[in-house]
Amino acid sequence: MPPSPFAGVLERLLGRVPGARVGALVDDEGETVDYAGALTPFDAKLAAAHLRILLAQLDRFGALGTSSSLIIRGARRTLVARA
Length: 83
Hints:
two-stranded antiparallel ribbon, 39% helix, globular, 2 helices, single chain, 83 residues, alpha+beta
């Protein structure tokens, strides 16, 4: 998928977040609308889709209320998803 005009906005956003490597916009079904960053397009889309699915599953769980963000901390990386 060729970069859209919005990819430049995502690139500038990534430049303002220390350590950020990729940013993606994903629809409700996990389909990537746009992305930018240092990962391959496949890896960026796959990670974004999985995070969107996890965020939706948290909402369906219901015990936590409406979920607006998900943060997964690892030893070397942190993943953040926001609705």
